[in-house]
Design brief:
Number of domains: 2
CATH class of the largest domain: Alpha Beta
Number of strands: 9
CATH topology of the largest domain: Beta-lactamase
Distance between the termini: 19 Å
Structural class: alpha+beta
Strand content: 5-15%
CATH architecture of the largest domain: 3-Layer(aba) Sandwich
Bound molecules: glutamine
Number of helices: 13
Radius of gyration: 18 Å
Order of helices and strands: HEEEHHHHHHHHEHEEHHEEEH
Length: 309
Amino acid sequence: MPCRSSEELDGLVREAKKVTKHGKVANYIPALQKGNRDDLSVAIYHADGTCLSAGDIEQKITLQSISKVLSLALALMDCGEECVFNKVGYEPTGDPFNSIIKLETNHSRKPLNPMINAGALAVTHLIKGVNVEERLERLISFIRDLAGHNVITYSLEVAQSEFETAFLNRSLCYYMKQDGIIDEDVEDLLDLYTKQCAIEMDCLDLARIGLVFAMNGFDPVREKQIIPVEVARLCKTFMVTCGMYNASGEFAIRVGIPAKSGVSGGIMGAVRNRFGIGIFGPALDEKGNSIGGIEFLEMLSKRYELSIF
Ligand code: GLN
């Protein structure tokens, strides 16, 4: 059984940490600059309910782009596949996650996929509720259900910091409003999206949510199907094709585990029928992925032959 001992996990994390000096902490969201470049923590949540961790596991991280998988799952459960893919496509892009270029050049005008910012904004737009508060509350309770406890909330500081500086995301919204992809007030959507990205948890929670995806939407700890199998399958497919932004191809070759990253330095991974992985390492590579996190996953995947390919 792979990675059952803490010493082994500690060893892999220590080894992976060596590359963090080559990364940079995100600074375009001012509050994220507080992250410590040398941190790297990892949790693994097995299907039998046992966990393993290394590093500062108490530390909370904001989900940032990892939240895009969770909002996609909720929107698919809220509105169904047809409605969601009416607004957003299925294809990876070779562009950075916040690029605006394809919104103008792509003939359908739809954002290419739900993992880039434009696509995620279009998906968040679909979350049901009478106002921003209710939609956020529904998303947070869904995430609490996935993590198996009730104390998850969002960081107001990080949400505000992003809201005040989200000029590019505002522009993406205005493009999409012009093209009829979204029809709500842009400030409302930005309010919801920045709070969604600022939802906080520790690596263990992240690993537990990864486990639910690994088990095709089933929480083996509480023996409960939280996400329909088909929705979990769709989300995991996007994790493989677009989860690591425009580095997803290289990641598929080097690691081959369905995963989603965020600019806070988080990565959530799902090893089919076996375990979920939660990583926090704020030093990012040039594509915006946790540099230590990817190094760790590559070592883990090679050692235990975890690639799906
Ligand atoms: N909140 C971030 C943004 O929209 C999320 C991006 C990311 O994690 N890559 O810019």
